[in-house]
Amino acid sequence: MDCLGNHDLLNLPKTAFLASSTIPTDMVLRCYDWATQMAKEEQCIISGFSSHLEKEVLHFLMKGRCPIILVMAREMYKQIPSELRPLLDAHRLLIISVSKAVRQSKATAHARNKYICEIADKILFVGVTEKSSLYPLTDTYKNKEIMGTGF
User: Fold this and answer.
1) What is the pLDDT of residues 80-99, one digit of tens each?
2) Of 76, 70, 81, whose CA–CA distance to 48 is shortest?
3) Which of 77, 107, 113, 67 is nearest to 2 (CA)?
4) What is the model's pTM?
5) 121 by DSSP, 3-state: which?
6) 3 state DSSP class of 115
7) 79 and 54 in contact (C-beta within 8 Å)?
């Protein structure tokens, strides 16, 4: 694993945000509201911020003050995206790479999501159905505080 940023964020209580790739519109709006609220708090949010909705949630979180852990299912950035630099400078971000793969694959995404669930204290699954690749994780990590599969 490669890490870049504030390693102390790993010591904080963490809420995982994992969203399916297909989300009903009403659920999207609730996620925006949730992200807006989380941005105002100091609770650490961890995600791959890989799906479309996860990326949008990241933008809401970045506007606030909450600490963020971004877990990548590919090798570490060679150059940090400019929008992440202010978060690194403010010690609000930790970037973790759980794979040496050049590109994300289904296997590396699964390993990333499993890692996120393992280190999170709470998990918010959004839009997960029995057909979702995230579905097996809802059963595997049912011992954690699951905030909802339907949100």
Assistant:
1) 999 999 999 999 999 999 99
2) 70
3) 77
4) 0.91
5) coil
6) helix
7) no
